[in-house]
C-alpha cells in the first residue's frame, strides 16, 4: 500500500469494514427480534400521551429565542475557561484582557438588544 492512492485504499477499506459491522448489527437485530405487531403497538406514541386532535400545533417563537440565548451563554462559558488559563501566562495578560472585554461587550450588546425588544419577558 505505497504511494498516493495507497492511503486512500486503507481509508476505504476501513470504511467498508465499518459499514459491514454496522449493517451486520442491523441484520442481526432484524433476525433475532420478536415481531408481533398489533394495532396498539402501531399507533403514534409521543411522550406517553395518546394522539388527540390534528397533526398541526403552533409553537411560540420565544422558545427558540431562549434556546439561542442559552447557546450564547454556553459559547461564552466555553471561551471563558481557556481564557482564564491563558490570562495568567506571561506576556498575555493585557492582550487577553482586552480581547475578552471586547467579546463580553458583544455579548452584552446582544442581551441589551434582546431586553430592549422585550424578548426576555415571559408573558
UniProtKB/TrEMBL annotation:
The keyword Transferase does not apply. It is a multi-pass membrane protein. It holds the Pfam family Oxidored_q4. It catalyses: a quinone + NADH + 5 H(+)(in) = a quinol + NAD(+) + 4 H(+)(out). It is found in: Cell membrane; Membrane. GO terms for cellular component: NADH dehydrogenase complex; plasma membrane. Keywords: Membrane, NAD, Quinone, Transmembrane, Transmembrane helix, Transport. GO terms for molecular function: NADH dehydrogenase (ubiquinone) activity; quinone binding. Its EC number is 7.1.1.-. The keyword Membrane applies. The chain crosses the membrane at residues 6-28, 63-84, 96-115. InterPro entries: NADH_UbQ/plastoQ_OxRdtase_su3 (IPR000440), NDAH_ubi_oxred_su3_sf (IPR038430). Its main location: membrane. NDH-1 shuttles electrons from NADH, via FMN and iron-sulfur (Fe-S) centers, to quinones in the respiratory chain. Belongs to the complex I subunit 3 family. This is NADH-quinone oxidoreductase subunit. It comes from Planomonospora parontospora.
